[in-house]
Amino acid sequence: MAALDLLGRRWTLRVIWELHRHDTPIGFRDLQRRCDDMSSSVLSTRLAELREADIAGQTPDGAWQLTALGTELVIAMGPLLEWSRVWAERRG
Fold first, then answer.
1. In whole angstroms, how far apart are CA 53 and each of 30, 70, 75, 84, 92?
2. Phi and psi dihedrals of 65, rounded to 5?
3. What's the CA gap between 35 and 14, in Å, rounded?
4. Which of 61, 65, 81, 92 is geometrically suited to a Cys-Cys bond with 25, CB 3.0 to 4.6 A?
5. How far is CA 55 from the centre of its chain?
6. In the predicted structure, residue 92 carries a pLDDT above the cut 90
7. pTM of this structure
8. What is the dihedral of CA 28, 10, 2, 76, to 10 degrees?
9. Cβ contact 26:19 at 8 Å
10. C-beta contacts of 11-16 below 8 A and 24+ residues apart
């Protein structure tokens, strides 16, 4: 339930997706832009939560990236991604 609580928070999945999508460390401002300019306070909170959960971490220069556990999470969400593609096609 703790994982579902974390993943269900607004913007959490989007942040994970953006960190995964580019597969390279990304700075805070660039990540904020990729997340439709969400507020910096919300992004800071989500990143802190993801860091505490060992899903995301920072490089020595301060950029953000998924941890090994975060990458495993994205892999585990693969079936949900495939389901969402089918769902979107059916909705037209």
1. 22, 9, 17, 25, 37
2. -155, 165
3. 7
4. 65
5. 9
6. no
7. 0.89
8. -70
9. yes
10. 11/35, 11/38, 11/42, 11/43, 11/46, 12/46, 12/49, 12/50, 14/38, 15/43, 15/46, 15/47, 15/50, 15/56, 16/50, 16/55, 16/56, 16/66, 16/70, 16/73, 16/74
CA atoms within 13 A on the CB side of 67: 11
Cα gap 74→82, rounded to integer Å: 12
**Phi–psi pair at 38, nearest 5 degrees:** -60, 160
Query: How confident is the model over 5-43, as pLDDT tens digits?
Result: 999 999 999 999 999 998 899 999 999 999 998 999 999
Q: Which pair of structure tokens corresponds to residue 31?
A: 């990540």
